[in-house]
Design brief:
Distance between the termini: 30 Å
Oligomer: single chain
Number of helices: 8
Number of domains: 1
Strand order of the largest sheet: 3-2-1-4-5-6-7
Shape: globular
CATH topology: Rossmann fold
CATH superfamily: NAD(P)-binding Rossmann-like Domain
Order of helices and strands: EHEHEHEHEHEHHHE
Strand content: 15-25%
Largest sheet: 7 strands, parallel
Helix content: 40-55%
Structural class: alpha/beta
């Protein structure tokens, strides 16, 4: 098992990506702490983890609330002794499908500020405890607008690029203390409702159906398909494990060849 004996916290664990990662982490032996704002979705993920022999410990946490994040992190340390892995998969409301020239300024700046706030809050809270332990892994999620010029993404491309920049700065500061920081870069997984919504908005802007837009995206990749949730979860487990102990300050490329490094 890749993560046997590890304690992992997943923010937005009730979402499509968070749920997939939580089930995979549990299957790989981790003790998983599920954090999110909606109890029902967290319960559903915990039930799915039971099916693979894992246990999900649930907490309702607003990952934009500094004190809530700090209290929850302290609770995990008191309960489990340490935090080995922290993965923030929080999404924030944002508009896509509108040209930047027509986008109200708050629709651009507010999502960026919220996205960076939650990532810094959760990473900082975990890092403080990881520093005491002298080890740990902080994971973040990004996608192709960080590297590609894609129209009508609104603030999303800036958000993805900013998260990658944050991860590199954190990696430089925390690396000497045995802590790794890694992003996972995906195409976006069509199984996820949020990706379906984004594809629909882009399709409308391009005068296509959602299926036509998705096919266009697939055809742009070298593998002629998009990243699955299972592939994201598997890579997350590997990057969180000691098998990836030399990997930090980078984005694991899961774009099926859409982005070439």
């Amino acid at each position: 098992m890749l993560l046997k004996g590890k304690n992992a916290v997943i923010y937005a664990a009730g979402g499509a990506i968070g749920g997939a990662v939580a089930r995979t982490f549990a299957g790989e032996g981790a003790r998983v702490f599920l954090a999110g704002r909606t109890r029902a979705s967290l319960d559903a993920v915990a039930d799915g983890m039971t099916a693979v022999g894992g246990v999900g410990e649930i907490s309702e946490v607003d990952a934009l609330d500094e004190f809530a994040v700090e209290r929850h992190t302290q609770h995990i340390v008191q309960e489990a002794g340490r935090i080995d892995v922290s993965f923030n998969l929080i999404g924030v409301p944002l508009g896509q499908g509108t040209p930047l020239a027509d986008l109200p300024i708050d629709d651009f700046t507010v999502p960026i500020a919220a996205y960076m706030r939650t990532h810094l809050l959760t990473a900082r809270a975990a890092a403080r405890h990881m520093l005491e332990a002298g080890s740990g892994v902080i994971l973040m999620m990004t996608t192709t607008p960080d590297r590609l010029a894609i129209p009508f993404v609104g603030p999303f491309g800036v958000m993805c690029a900013a998260v990658e920049a944050l991860s590199r700065t954190l990696a430089a500061e925390l690396g000497p203390h045995g802590i790794r920081v890694v992003c996972l870069r995906s195409t976006g997984s069509p199984e996820a409702p949020g990706v379906q919504w984004a594809f629909t908005r882009h399709a409308e802007a391009a005068g296509k159906t959602r299926d036509e837009f998705q096919k266009t995206m697939e055809d742009r990749t070298m593998l002629r398909r998009l990243t699955t949730l299972a592939e994201v979860a598997d890579m997350a487990a590997f990057m969180a494990s000691d098998r990836a102990s030399a990997t930090t300050a980078t984005a694991a490329n899961l774009t099926c060849g859409l982005v070439v490094d």
